[in-house]
Model the fold of this input.
Amino acid sequence: LQKLNSEKDKFFSIIAHDLRSPFTAFLGFTQLMVQDLPTLRFDNIQEIALLMRDSATNLHRLLENLLQWSRLQRGMIAFNPEQFLLQPKLKSCTQSVMEIANKKGVEISFDIPDDLMVFADNNMIESVIGNLASNAVKFTNKGGKILISAMTIPDQTVQISIKDTGIGLNNALLEKLFKIDEFTSRTGTDGEPSTGLGLILCKDFVDRHEGKIWAESIEGMGSTFHFTLPPAKYNQ
Done:
């Protein structure tokens, strides 16, 4: 009952605040275009268009997380693990994040063995990587760096890590991550919105793979998020 109440509170909090704010910003930009379009210079229009695109991108990710989380709670997301190479998967599912990182001047690099394979659900892993990479960009200042790496650890599971040089987390906030009944929302270094829902979704998806997810961080120096996945069956 406590878990259900926490989920309900989180759901309504996102709708009432986190979903409303970017919608309000987007509507504000459209109203500005309607009222002032004849007097705006081309560079003003381009700037407004970029801001509208950023608002739409944030809204899309938030809605995707909200819908996935809702479906997961109702048992409507199928779990279909299969073997696949990890490197091309990680690079393909961070393409959308790359554009935001480039605009922000944040460098994303990879350190993943060419032949490393995992046994996992494609859609769930895309969501986990997308959320963690997006968060890393969100909380990293201009000129910062992000490293996405993977390796096989002694128990033969595969550990994936997303390390950034961002603003980091204090110990109090670090302990609240991945808990649905805790408030972990904060804005990014460029004022990007955040709900904390993406991390809860990541934990649920990693749990489905019987893996672990955790974070290490030093405030002001950056964070590293780790999670584990089963190796490919032929490696077991």
About this structure: The chain has a mean pLDDT of 83. The longest strand covers residues 145-152. Residues 42-73 form the longest helix (32 residues). The chain has eight helices and seven strands.
